[in-house]
Every structure is written in C-alpha cells, then in structure tokens.
Amino acid sequence: xxxxxxxxxxxxxxxxxxxxxxxxxxxxxxxxxxxxxxxxxxxxxxxxxxxxxxxxxxxxxxxxxxxxxxxxxxxxxxxxxxxxxxxxxxxxxxxxxxxxxxxxxxxxxxxxxxxxxxxxxxxxxxxxxxxxxxxxxxxxxxxxxxxxxxxxxxxxxxxxxxxxxxxxxxxxxxxxxxxxxxxxxxxxxxxxxxxxxxxxxxxxxxxxxxxxxxxxxxxxxxxxxxxxxxxxxxxxxxxxxxxxxxxxxxxxxxxxxxxxxxxxxxxxxxxxxxxxxxxxxxxxxxxxxxxxxxxxxxxxxxxxxxxxxxxxxxxxxxxxxxxxxxxxxxxxxxxxxxxxxxxxxxxxxxxxxxxxxxxxxxxxxxxxxxxxxxxxxxxxxxxxxxxxxxxxxxxxxxxxxxxxxxxxxxxxxxxxxxxxxxxxxxxxxxxxxxxxxxxxxxxxxxxxxxxxxxxxxxxxxxxxxxxxxxxxxxxxxxxxxxxxxxxxxxxxxxxxxxxxxxxxxxxxxxxxxxxxxxxxxxxxxxxxxxxxxxxxxxxxxxxxxxxxxxxxxxxxxxxxxxxxxxxxxxxxxxxxxxxxxxxxxxxxxxxxxxxxxxxxxxxxxxxxxxxxxxxxxxxxxxxxxxxxxxxxxxxxxxxxxxxxxxxxxxxxxxxxxxxxxxxxxxxxxxxxxxxxxxxxxxxxxxx
Amino acid sequence: xxxxxxxxxxxxxxxxxxxxxxxxxxxxxxxxxxxxxxxxxxxxxxxxxxxxxxxxxxxxxxxxxxxxxxxxxxxxxxxxxxxxxxxxxxxxxxxxxxxxxxxxxxxxxxxxxxxxxxxxxxxxxxxxxxxxxxxxxxxxxxxxxxxxxxxxxxxxxxxxxxxxxxxxxxxxxxxxxxxxxxxxxxxxxxxxxxxxxxxxxxxxxxxxxxxxxxxxxxxxxxxxxxxxxxxxxxxxxxxxxxxxxxxxxxxxxxxxxxxxxxxxxxxxxxxxxxxxxxxxxxxxxxxxxxxxxxxxxxxxxxxxxxxxxxxxxxxxxxxxxxxxxxxxxxxxxxxxxxxxxxxxxxxxxxxxxxxxxxxxxxxxxxxxxxxxxxxxxxxxxxxxxxxxxxxxxxxxxxxxxxxxxxxxxxxxxxxxxxxxxxxxxxxxxxxxxxxxxxxxxxxxxxxxxxxxxxxxxxxxxxxxxxxxxxxxxxxxxxxxxxxxxxxxxxxxxxxxxxxxxxxxxxxxxxxxxxxxxxxxxxxxxxxxxxxxxxxxxxxxxxxxxxxxxxxxxxxxxxxxxxxxxxxxxxxxxxxxxxxxxxxxxxxxxxxxxxxxxxxxxxxxxxxxxxxxxxxxxxxxxxxxxxxxxxxxxxxxxxxxxxxxxxxxxxxxxxxxxxxxxxxxxxxxxxxxxxxxxxxxxxxxxxx
Lengths: 687, 687
Prior knowledge:
EC number (chains A, B): 3.4.14.-
CATH class of the domain at 2-114 and 184-257 and 546-685 in chain A: Mainly Beta
Number of strands of chain A: 20
GO molecular function (chains A, B): dipeptidyl-peptidase activity; serine-type aminopeptidase activity
GO biological process, one term (chains A, B): peptide catabolic process
Largest sheet of chain A: 11 strands, antiparallel
Distance between the termini of chain A: 35 Å
Oligomer: homodimer
Shape of chain A: globular
Function (chains A, B): Catalyzes the removal of dipeptides from the N-terminus of oligopeptides.
Radius of gyration of chain A: 26 Å
C-alpha cells in the first residue's frame, strides 16, 4: 500500500544535495536534449515538452496525468487508496471489490483532494542573487530574500492567475517561481479490486517480475462539468518494445546525491541498523498481538503492513550501503569532485574544507545515535504522542512565534491541531503491549541506572509502567485533550493524568537532546551540505540535474530486463505470468488470483504484456507517473521501483536499477475484458 | 547442457572430508530414520528402503530409475544428451526435434552406455582394521590392504554374481563392498526436443523459477527382451503439495564438508578468482571469434556454452565463499569440532595439530598459485594437449609402471590413448586466436623476463608464437600422432614439429611444478585431511553422514519456496509460467516457446505444475535422481540445484538452497498432450 508514495510533509534531518548522474531527473526548463539525442537519436520539440509537462499533475504525494479530452486522469491505485477507502462504506467496499462508474452520474466526488498542474515557470535567480550580494547580516538578508520572493510570487500569480510556489534548485543555486493550475473537484471513475491492483502484496513489493493492475481513474470537473484540458496523453494501443526509449514525467520526491561518504557511513553503521532493530522488534510484538484473535489481527493490520513495507525498504537501503562496490563508487565520485575543485584555488578557499567539517559533524552525531533513537520509542503510541504534544505545545505557545519549535509556529498549527484532535480509533490495549516491549528494550540497552530510564519507569517494570500509563490516561477522550489545550500550560501542569505526568517528566531530556541535535548537528550539516552543493554548481551548472525536490521532472531510459543472481529478469510480464504465480503459490494470499480475472480467463489474450521495467530513474513521488513514447503517447504507468532502484536516492543508475510500470496494453485489456469498461477504454484511445 | 553432470573421471587436488550436516546425503545402509521420524513423522520400512534402493541406477555421471515393470528407465535429457546426439544423423536431429518411439521396434540402441544398480552391500571395515593394526611399514600395509580388498571383492562377486567395487566412506573410516547389477543393452525411448528440455538455457541454469521438461526415457533390455526389474517406481499422478516430505535417491558426486577454513580461504582469495579471470578472458576471445561469421560461431559454440556454464558455477561458489555469514558458519563448525576434540586428550595427541598443518600447506600453496595457473594455459588448445601428451607419455613409458605419472600408468593408458587418437574435428584457427590471447595475458601478468615466458615465446610476440605453433604443426593428423607414439621417446625428441618442440622446451618447468604440487602440497593435504576426517569419525561415527562419494545416497526434505532479494520464490512453476517467460522475452533464444508446446496450448491444462523446488540436498551426480513420496512413488525428477545449493558442497542446507525437479504431473501432461505418448504415460502410471 505504502510503496513509494512520497510523504507530503516529512522531517528530514540531512541536507539534500545534487548528483554526479549522467542520467538524472531533469526539470522541463532544461531537459537533457543532448543526452537524448546522442543516446537515442531523439530531440523532443518545444511542443512535445509543453504537451507532456501540461498533461502531468501532482497529487501531493504522487503523480497523475490527463488521459482524455474529457478530463480523465490516470494515477496508481495505491496513490488513490486513501480516497477509495474514504468513499467506501459498510455496504460498498470499493477497496475489496473495486469501483466502476459506467456513467458520469455514477462518478463519486473525492474529499480533500487537490491536483496541481505545473503550467508556467520563471527563473528569478538573478533577482535573488543581486539582493543577496548587497549589504546586511545573514539574518537581514534572509528576511529580505523572503520579502522579495513573496513579492515576486504575488506578481507572478497576479500576471498568470496561477497558484505560485518558490522552488529552490541545486540547494539554493537557483530560485524559480512555479505557477500551478489547481483542481479540487476530482471524482472517482474506476478502480480495480485491491487484489488485482496489489497482487503479490508485500512479498512482491519492490520486486520484478510483477503482475499488478495498480491503476485508478479520476475525472476532473470544473463548474460541475468535466474539464477540457488543453493537453492530455493519449493511451497507446501499440505499446512498447524491449529496448525502446521511454520518458517518465512525474514528481520525484527527494534524492540525496551529494551526501558525503562520512554521512553515508554514519547511516550504514548506526542510523539504519538501529532503526531496523527497533522496527523489527516492534513488528514482532505486533505479530504476537495479532495472533491473539481476529479483532487484534484487524487492529494491528495496518501497523504490521506499514512496518513490513518499511523494513523491506530499510533493509534494501542498508544492503546497498553495505555493498563495497556502491561505497567505492560514491567515494570515487566524491574524490573526483574534490579533485576538480582542487584545480580552482578560489573555490578551494571557499569550499575546500566542507567535507572534513561534515565528517566531524558525523563523528559527534555517532556519540549519541543509539540513545537518541531509544528515547523516541514513545512514538509507537498515539496516546503518548498526544501527551507529548499537549506538554510541548502549551509550553511553546508562551514563546514568540519565531522562537517556538518549528511544528508549533503559527503556519503549522493547523496540522498539529488536526493530529491532536483526530477522532481516529485508539487501541490502548495494543499500544500498551507495544510500549511495554519497547521500554523493555530500552532498559536492556541503556541499563536500569540510566537517568532517562529511571524517569520513564519510576521504579516500575516496563510492563507495569506501560499498563499504568495507558490504562490510567483519559487522553483517548478528545474532549479531554481540548480541555487541556484550552487550559494552556497551567492546566497541563496541574493535570494528574498519568500520561501527561510522564510526558512532563521526560520533557527536559527531550528538549536537551533536541537542542543538541538542532544546534550541533542539523545546522552544521545544513551549512556544509549547502557549501558542497554550491561548489558542485559552480563547477558544473546545469551539466548535472538538480536533486529531486518533489517538483516536475523528466527522466529517460529504455525498456530493459536485467541480470540477477539466479537468472535474467525479463523486460515484461504477461497475464500468463499472473496465472502462473497464483497457481505456483496454490492461490494463497497475497497470491490469490483476482476473482474477476479468473472469470475472464477465456476472454483474455494471456500473452498481453501486463507490467514492464525501464531504466528511467524514479523515486518515491513518481508513483502514478506516465511513461511516454516519442510520439507523446502514454505507454505505461509507473507504480514502483525494484529494490536495486533505491540506489537512485544516492547516485545514478546501476545495471540493475529499474522503474516498474503497468503496461498500457495490459491496462486496456483489463478494462475491456475483465472490468467491462469498454467506454472508458475507448475514451483513452480514440483519435 | 553441462549443468550438474558429475565427471566420471576427475582429478581432485583436495581431500574430501565429511560434514557437520544434520540433513545430509545418507547411505541406504544407515538411513536417517531418527531425523525423518522426528521431523516428518515418517519411518521408512526395510521394504521401502529396499524398493527405492533397487529402483535407482547410475549412468556413471548421473542417476536414473526404473519406472515400469517393462524396464523403462527415467533420467534427465541433459544426462542422456550425449547418447541422443550420437544417435542423431544429418537426416534425424533428435536433439533439435526430440525422439519418440511409439513401438518397441522404434527404440534405438545406445552405444557405450552401461547402467548400474546397487543390489547388495557388505561392511568389511573390521577385516581391514584388523589387518591395518598389524605390523608393517605404511607401504607394506597399503599393499596388504589392496590385496585383502581384491580378495574380498572376488569372494563377494563370486557369492552374489554382482560387479563389486570397494567404497571408502568417511575418508577411510569405513570400507564397504558394493555389488552392482549392470545393464548394457539400453535403448532410447523418448526424449523431448532440446528447447523444451532446456528452456531458458544458460541464463536460467542454476535458477528458479524454471520451466524445463528435462527428461529422457530409456528401456533396458536383456537377451533381446525388455528387462523385468524386481523393483521400479510408479509415477504418481497425484503429485506433491507445498511443504510435503520428499526423498531423493541418487548418486551425488562429491562434497567437501570438512575442508578447513584455511583451505576455503585459499580457494576464496586465489584459486577461484584466478580461474574465473582466466575463463572470463577466454570467453571474451571466443566471443570475438564467434562474431567473425556463422562458421566461427558454430565452431566456438560448445566452448562458449561450456565456459558460460562453468563461470556461472564458479562465480556462485566465489560469492558464497565471500559471504561473511557462510565463512563465520564454517569457522564455528570447525571451532566446535576442535573444542570437542580438546576434551579427549588421547585424540588431541593424535589429531590436534592437523588444522594448523593444513594452514601451513595453504600458506605454501599461495606462493605459487598464480604462476601455476598461468602456466596451464596450453589446455585451451587440443593440439597443445596432444603435443604435451606425446612428450610426457613417451618419457614416462620408459619408467616402471608405479613410477609414472598417474595418468600414464597401465590401467589409465586406455583413456589417455583414446584422447590422443580422437578424430574429433580440430579448429586450428580458433585455437590459435585463443592461445595468442592467453599467452598475451601471461606476458602481462608474469612479465617478458619470466623464464617460462621466454621459453614459451622464444623472442616472438604472443600472436607470432601462436601462429607459428598452430599453423606449423602436423599434429592435427592422427596418423602423425600414431607415428610419433610408435617411435617413442626417440621419435619425439627427433621431431621438428614446432608444437612438439614447444612442449619439449616447457616440459622441465612442468615437471618441476608438478613435483612441487604433488610432493609438497597434495600429499600433505591428503594426510591432514585424513587426520581431520578420522578425528571426526572417532567423535561422531554415523551421527553425521559421510561425504558424497558418487555412490547411492538418500536425502530428505520438503517442497518449499524461499525468500530472495526481491521477493519470494514459489515452490512450483506451471505451464502458464512457461508461456509467460517466452512472451516476456519476446520468444527470443533461449526463451523461445517450444513449437510443439505452442501448438498444444489449447489441449494443455496450463495450471499443471511443471517444476518444483525442495530442500533435499543434492550435488552434481544427482541429475536424474527420482524424488519419491512416502508411498515410494516417483513425484519428481531432479535436474538441477539453484545457485545457493552450491553451499551443499561445503556445508549443510541454508534457508535458500534448493534442488530443482521436473514435476511428475508436468511430465505426464507433456507425454499425453504435447508428445502424443499416451501409451508411455499409461505404462508409467498403471497399477
């Protein structure tokens, strides 16, 4: 389910910095025309680029595209999953059964969903540079820059009528205004049953061969009528061939291609192993809980799926970091960059020591890596999270806005309150089991004499403490939370709720650790990361693409299988393969043959390609991106990357990294022969 | 093609020693009844064991089994490949088209094929021990033992009417007489087309999922009539389930489970990397040669396939040796064995220093590892081999029999002459290209000043030398070889053939290296390996099975998929998967859908299981072994192991090692619906 959605809001500790890639994810403002011409003999015209750019939308965490003149939009089932779930009811389980509107009237309006289309951009780097080279302290200049950008945004918005964001590329090397058209009347048209969309489930996630119909259709309305987009991608009936050029247009979330070797070593040696250990233990305890009965299984299902998915990704990243060849490559990249820098004395003076300084920050970070992670275990409980939020928020609100923790500043309060007052069900019994186990782990790791442990347990065993906290608290009651927040710091300090008391007791340690992390580590990492990015941009300019920033990018590559330990992974799969895999696992979950496909077998051309893999770079956020051929037609729908594609977060393609797509031919075959959606298929393909 | 045939004659440098396995490949004389009972609740009866033992045959390099009361025998297509090829003619290409005898008259008699069936065994350890504890020098005792065993063999043969071999288990811990029934009238009954037998070719070799119909049927005749075997395995129509117990009866060739960590380190650091480097370079030059034209492609095809296959295996072994977890496991095994030994002072005195002595031998071996391998490059040329053989053989023949190199002693001369006078076609142009490149590599590695290099080149460039040698020699003419051999040492010394002169010039270096290798390395490895094996046997006796020795063994396990990097490998494949893989690769070689199967699609039940994987241990030599269920029925036919099964050469099962089988249901489906061999299918299944 989670796969590769890119969380719209994410706390990132490390600085993102650009790549040595010769492939890359390129802004449409400077597409890789030379590379495309030299490698594939293809030069996209201005019209081609505009056509593709103005067909592609972002959902916030994923990508989508216009695919008909009547406002049809195609994205992934797992991107639309939350909407499909929200539209379901006890009578209609659209997740389980799929949703198929055969008339406009049957289309269902989504709530809280806005799609954005990048329409126009403007480079404002020169204005920002001119301002920043003027006099003033860094703080003054930063404030001036903010004011300038606000002014520029307003002017651009006024001129174009678009929603405008400032986009920073190359870690501050360039400033752009991105103007979006926005659409908020989005209606669900067609979603397959989850078993077809997510056949193979977690075992097959991040893998290939795959056999998933991971698609959903929306239709966008304006003023109660289907929108008539100026650009949309026709779905190709001809499909793609092995080795054929394809281009991927979407919104990749984040890459970290200039992370230094020292940062990666920290991640390899401490950060990821610690996190994996914590999550493995948590998964184990959820599984024990799930084994208690059907209701416990249901309550813990989401947590288990999320942990499994996350662990698969984390382990994939760790395996990559532990691969000596990968590390040698990263080191060679870093050495080459520094060697080129060394030939430019004026740059050496300005940037030369950034790598050593970054290494020093990592050395300090290592000293508290384990303790810091262990103290965060309260996150496993939504009730502990509520208590922490109440204690911290009420204290922070007494400070002026700019002195507060970031998440409690005025512009963030909406999100914070939303979380605090969520009426999502709370399973205190489950949270207790998990918290007890995580506390036990902290005791085992830090020792009973550790001051934080003593404060957390108060002389009790972990099980006793967890029970007292979670059975004694009243915070499951949203009105109680509202009462405490309304009463402010005083009410919170007077509260005798055991969880509030616990949060108060641990708050000083939290504030000390956070201050150290922000002041000693993150700010230094940010400064050195920016210096490295600047050095790179001074040397290379647009010769390398900027790191992904969640904004629209174009990547290119070809349909291609790849060698793997045991054999050779094919470029395509077919419906035959779906039937094979279901039978090979004796139809057991998650390899159960989807019922409608089973029933449609005699109508299907089983040789129809179902999924394919390409060398086009993609990362989280690309889910739902269209694969486009030279003619600007949609030939596939990105829905995953294989486990080797994690590499793309750090560096350019290796010989095994692949993006995974639903083949347009497989999609049309399903619409016509499985789901009886001929009109929809015709709308996608008509000329 | 090569897959896992176990070469009947093989030069093995290292000593084979037994395993710490708790699974294992067990002699039928002491089957793992306790393990089977505790793990699977199954205790095979005496009758069950006799029934299975007396149904299984060896082909010399592979395994086969009686599968009908009328003498039908089932083995692998790749085991029978040489016979099928020999029976083919320009008019009838049975390799390409398959062979299908629909009457007894159409069955074709094979030449030079003898199958052996282990009928009875006798433990003669006590007699040998009694003799060996008597007085005498080691040489005298060895001669006495040989005489005793010859006498015992004769007596057993006389008593039973069987062909008798002495079999040494536990590296000399036990001596057994194995009495075989032999069959030499073997007729080809049915072989599928090669594309069906070997679908996926080299890319899929050692992998899973697989989709191969790797089977061939023979029928054994005696006195012109089909033999009526006392025991044969009925082919099960019910098949096996995921997780079900299966037992594998066959002739695994060789395992090395007590090899010391020092030996494995040598193999990991030097032996395998050097060999892989030499072979990779050779493969590259063959491929360049193949690219010159269709005839060159044809000439080099076998060499290329052989090298590809071998490299895949070598790289698999190397990856395993480089896996820290594997090495840690081996070390732990070794440490545990030595720790148990340390508690028995009488054994410490006798065996305690064997591991350190073995390490010292490896240290010496390391000093000349590279040079020794490089000097062997002449092996790439059959003509160089002929020249070397003539020079060495004529010199050796002047010595008394027991002083000669092993391969020139009287009992080996037949094989040596057979190779020397082979009329197989010689492609001197191809050999020249390869020899030139390999010589260049030696120069690059050892330097032009190296004495061996100077002797080999005689002032010429590698290309010049190779050209002079291979275009100037007359040794392609078999009569010339016969003339030289008949003339003996004198004729060879007088020869002006450039290749003979070359072999003469390099002979002293060869003899010096070989003497060092045999006297300093191999004899010491043999002695220390035996001491370690003895120590183990003294501690454990039959609690661990002996290393494989090419003789009949029983292994057990269950049908089971396994986790792999990207996903989960299923326990079975189906015909659907065959069609999927062919279409996924666009029907390109080696993934072309076999024509007859393509034509049979509408008749086939595509969900029929085609291949499966099990945890039963197997190694080279097991090809063609029957998988048997509790009822003693044949449910599958072993034809490969996955790449992780290479582990089984060194240690017991890990969680990914699997044997790969043709499913009996897939076999019957093919006989009935693809090959129109209903009578054969009925013969296999009738009750």
